[in-house]
Amino acid sequence: MSNYPNLFQPLDLGFTTLKNRVLMGSMHTMLEDIPEGHERLAAFYAERARGQVGLIVTGGVAPNKSGLALPIGHPLDNEDEVWKHRVVTDAVHAEDGKICMQILHTGRYGYSEHNVSASDTKAPISPFPARGLTGEEVEQTIKDYVKCAELAQQANYDGVEIMGSEGYLINQFIVSKINRRDDEWGGAYENRIKFPLEIVRRTREAVGPNFIIIYRLSMLDLVEGGSTWEEVVHLAKEIEKAGATIINTGIGWHEARVPTIGTIVPRGGFAWVTKRMMGEVSIPLVATNRINTPEVAEQVLADGCSDMVSMARPFLADPQFVTKAAAEKPEEINTCIACNQACLDHTFTLQVSSCIVNPRACHETLLPDPSVAPAAAPTESGSSVAKKIAVVGAGPAGMAAATVAAERGHDVTIFEASDKLGGQFKMATVIPGKEEYRQTIRYYGEMLEKHGVTVRLNTRATAEELTSFDEVVIATGVTPRKLDFPGIDHPKVLDYADVLAAKKKVGKSVAIIGAGGIGFDVAEYLSHDFDHPSVSLSVDEYMKEWGVDMAYARGGSLAESPQPLPSPREVYLLKRSKGKHGKNLGKTTGWIHRSSLAMKQVNMLAQCTYEKVDDAGLHITVAGEPRVLDVESVVICAGQEPLDVLSKKLTAAGVNVHVVGGALNAKELDAKRAIKEAWEVAVAL
Fold this sequence. Notes:
Oligomer: single chain
Number of domains: 3
Distance between the termini: 42 Å
Number of helices: 22
CATH architecture of the largest domain: Alpha-Beta Barrel
Structural class: alpha/beta
């Protein structure tokens, strides 16, 4: 009997049947916007279809030019665009998959001078104001949605998803804080929801009964003045009457100040709101957000939270998620750690998306699949010409290099000086909100064993023994950078490795020198009670900490104020430069880290010069003014140095050496770059 009986139950939609309850949620990858991007999209989606996803939803496609997120995009508004999309649908259908195209009008979220919305307005996340649509333009926009759906049908999509959540145009019509119209499209709630209802109703009339229409319903706006629960239920019922096949859950506007998809969010943390909707409509409902393992997906379904589960980023991390779960091998799934570093951060900085733990994501045509890219063909005598490869360092880069090389057929040995796999990720796993990083260590540990890698822990490789290998990959990572000022050797001075790895005692008052990513992580760690870190926060506790009212007493489901757990320490986060702290953190996650530390009342000081440390504390100058911080501990988070003592010796000895990750460039603790470099080296060996 399957461990996931609900997950693998087919779903009968009447005119078609989905093979399981897994929906691959919409993600904009930027492949939609680059030359020959649809060919790469086809390979991307085909690999997920081959992995047995029940239903795929594409990234958002605008119904007209004013709906584009960026001026460089391409709306589906004419038949010339249909042929590009057929490349995608043909590839998916060749793998016996089903795919819907998301229709997305960004409204005031667009990055364009041509933004439009329900009324004259400006989104806090766009530099451009939006102009309110005229009545005639509203009618034309509805027609554009319908035409876009018809063209999607011509392109052989199995359906469309009409994006009505996350604060985009349809949501802007629904909520009175944005919609200040006094015509038939504004005012009373019945008028404000006429826009989405007309879109769904007219789309159904145009495409006929045997075409999937998913409506993405904002069940939780998480903004002041958002919809009430009664309004959300009323809209869901009307959407069903208008002809929708499935209702998908939308959580939070993009401008909401509650984290909804970051790794800090508990797994399945928002399934409760979809469960609340169950029984209000008779069409299938989809739960979403932070569902990243088959166990969580199964539990959501078993608990009656929804009829389907949506997972987006987990299919960047592992296109074979479903097939591995079906084969009862969940331990082999490369789990999404919800870091956003290579997916959403890329999209919002106009780069093609990828995945920190799977660099092949969205690069399938550029980076070979190790499972189908053998190291070398057999010789005429039938003997193998695979190489003997050493990898030094078992952090993320080293484990990735060893796994990929071994999967291709090489004879691989990995050397690690410590007693455990993981490298810098071992420290990341103790940071509240980054516990998921241990899943990457778990995955690579499984893969090293599966592909026959010889693992030598507690072994510091020497140049002499490495000369017997054909190729050597140096992935030894970094060591904390040392600072030099009076008192740096004082007993109260520690570095981040002392705190996170060695677990040395830290006092009740602490100054952190350095406000980069590692400084923020250490501040997060020290501002939490070690007996109650965020990993143990229940969904209820998380919602309370971030100000979400699960009783839905107010519109948008926001509580009057967040109620975070207090910090057990007084923490100072110091940096030399001017400006706000964390400006170089992730585009889509930096605000979460800043907000979290603000809730913990971490003191952030800029323009600091470090004078000395003594028994009185840390002596600093802040913007020219001397100051003494009476702290019990000082933690140095001032960057890293490469930890590579082997490559020069090996090169001199004539060994083929490849240096990757922090051992090559220690500017930042950049696992995304490190793992990508490791893959690129391993597939070329």
